[in-house]
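Students often ask why we bother encoding 3D structure as a string. The short answer is that it lets us treat folding as translation between two languages. Here is a chain of 755 residues written in the first language.
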Amino acid sequence: MIVKTMNRRVRFTLMWMFGLAAFLINAQTYAAATPLSTVTPVPASEQLRLQTLMFKDMGHYEPVQLKGVDGRMNLAFGVRLDESVVSAKLKLRFSYSPALLPLLSHLKLVLNGEVVDALLLPKETAGTEVEREIELDPRYFTDYNNLSIQLVGHYTMECEDAMHSSIWASISNRSSLELTLRPLALQPGLSLLPAPFFDRRDNRRLDLPFVFAAKPSLATLRAAGVVASWFGAEAAYRSARFPTFYDQMPQRNAVVFATNAERPTVLQLPEVKLPTISVRPLPSDPTIKLLIIQGQDAAQLKTAADALVLGQVVLTGDTATITKVVYDPPRKAYDVPNWIRTDRPVKFSELVGDPSELQAVGHQPSPIRVNVRLPPDLLTWNRKGVPLDLKYRYTPPAVEDNSSLTVSINNSFVQAFRLRASGKGGDKGRLMVPVLDEAMAQYEESLVIPAFQVGSNNQLQFLFALDYHKEGQCKDSIVDATRSAIDPDSTIDLSPFPHYTTMPNLALFANAGFPFTKYADLSQTAVVVSNQPAADDAELMFFMLGRLGRVTGIPALRYNLVPTSAVSAQKDFDLLVINGAGESDLLTKWGKSLPAIIDKNRRLMTPLSPSKLQPGQLYGNEDSKTKSPWSVDASTNGGLAALIGFESPLQSGRSVVAVSSSGSEVAKNVVNAIEDDGLVSRIHGDIAFVRDRQIDSFQVNNMYYVGHLPWHLRIWFFLSMHPVLLAIFGLLAGLILAFLCYWTLRGVAARRMRQ
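And here it is in the second language, the structure alphabet:
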């Protein structure tokens, strides 16, 4: 027995030694095959990350009111693929009705279907804000999570009204969920793309570093711009920034761009003979991944970048070499995936990801929301609004009551409809379609959304409010089987509206990237930078391209990237001028066309000269004689940034948008302004000065028009802006008509006399 035990120990020891030897050999082989520079390992105790998710950051912009015996709210959040939850804590702030019975009432917390806690509601703290901290079991967390807070409320021991006004609780949107997260060392692989560099489970802004050699060429930066626009489209509402590093390595996931002639020295990358895409970890920290895009030269690097954004779904393994990329034809104007079509009515089913998004449950459900992104240059002049053919279904009330459907856009009221128990569908002039189900009433309504309430980014809100029918004492049922829905075949029709708008208009650029996004692949866009952009200027360019990708929903495969010295050849393109060393010289050269010039220490603002009159100044709309030309030319040592829009000096009808500043760091104020929903609404006109969080916008230079109008509409549109001319033409038309009538009647009278 002793011998057998010793033999087992010897075998175990030998196996352990052989395993250790194999591990060391593999580690050495891996290190030799992965020639990446090492970084100082981060202690395991410092790798934990604390993430605080505020309720207001998870879509609840106001406190949530829970009403009735089964009022509830849901919180959806994700956990990144490369992280796991170590611990979680819910910090809940709430108040509740003093009428609730403590023995029967409580708040039930459910995480992914598991009841994690039930919070008692004692009388002593009723009517005041209470804060509770609840520890959540990390084993219940998955990639996508749902935390439900349900009010179980009762105000009497006997028969009760399930919708009684005394049954309520208010959940503050200052409540938060704290997650302690540990990074995971994922197996590197292209099949996970765009993760872990962008993870759809993460609702935070995307901050993805781009790494280059010490002096990247414009061709290399152009390839990176395509990738930036792709990540911007993937990030969508989260927004995306791309901190740029020249021959430096950030301590986080990053994208590396290299050719055989331009390779970061901090990474000992091998030469390649074909376009190559690979995902590799840092040997010193396997939790950090690098997406490496390489080519033998700039042309191959472009091929690799384009292959990544077009075909990442078919990439597997940790390395892929690209032999060929086949491109689609260039996009036509307004063929933008994120904009609804304007050549035909568009069904609601095309505007949502799943038909369930158009359905609601309960008597007082949350609004059904439909995002509608429009081309920003639609001309709504002389029209009442946007026609909407609305079809909806609901569980009909047992009796006629005040149940209603309220339609709003961007939180502004449009129209309300009565929900009837009979077969008549509401107000006069409305059409009822045949009932599809005896238990569900279906109606069709035609309404018009006022044009002044429609912008480029819109949200339609449909709020069903169905009265709770009370049968009488002890006869009510607490089962709520009420359902309501907007039919996916409902349509919105933009085909009557032509594409025609006044420029420059920085509001169109800041909110919808116009005019560059008119072509989704940016085939009519030239980005202008200095001959050798600094890292901060390249980062600004990547942000802008990511922003344009967010608007269009696809990568910018066909934009031009040109230095300021070669801009004269880009007369057939709209120009996006990025702040940099040569930018101020170029804008100074175009000074006569600009409303303002900003240099390091110089500020020059020059509005219209007397010969450059706005259309509204003609024919007495404005007193042009009282206007005298003025300008301000000053020297200062403070920081200032601006967005400037004007007609291209190279070609009439083409537009220029320039980001100008007194320094690269100050230019980031423009990024902050465009990214902030509260600040971007202040950007309009043809120049917007940005000083920290202060934005001042002006319209000081000539306006011009882009787009197409039929000739008859063009005449009426022109005359509508000049009432004096309209009156003169009306008078002339009346005189001509009277003259024609006179000669016609005179001829008739002469014929009668001859007879």
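Translate back mentally: The longest strand covers residues 83-96. Keep this in mind for the problem set.
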